[in-house]
Design a protein that fits this description.
Length: about 130
């Protein structure tokens, strides 16, 4: 995923690196991205999971939900944040993709629930910001 056209300022935290704000032994997604569109005064929080050719919806949901729950400790509920959970994958498995669309697999962040946005590797991450 490219962050080239994401709003700035922005911060991408690799949750697998030393110094990550979450326990390296816990379930988590690959990245947390926070961006601020100053022009439109919109802040975004995107937990991002990267998958190759083989993935299961249940695992993606667990990882995105775990990181979203961790972020609730870092981002105040009072902050006006647009929450968008993202899966970036190399190939699509129709059955797993369908499972991610089920309402029971929405990702919770504070009092909001959002469906997982699915994108292909190489896509611009900013494409998920447009509804």
């Amino acid at each position: 995923m490219s962050m080239k056209s994401m709003p700035s300022p922005r911060l991408a935290i690799d949750l697998d690196k030393v110094g990550s704000p979450v326990d390296s032994n816990s379930t988590r997604c690959d990245f947390m991205v926070v961006a601020h569109d100053i022009l439109n005064n919109i802040c975004y929080f995107l937990p991002v999971e990267l998958k190759g050719e083989s993935w299961k919806a249940s695992q993606v949901v667990r990882q995105l939900q775990a990181s979203s729950s961790d972020a609730e400790r870092l981002i105040s509920e009072e902050d006006q944040i647009r929450f968008i959970p993202v899966l970036t994958q190399k190939s699509t498995h129709p059955m797993e993709r369908q499972k991610l669309r089920e309402s029971s697999n929405r990702i919770r962040f504070h009092r909001h629930e959002e469906p997982v946005q699915i994108r292909r590797c190489g896509d611009q991450l900013s494409r998920v910001l447009v509804k």
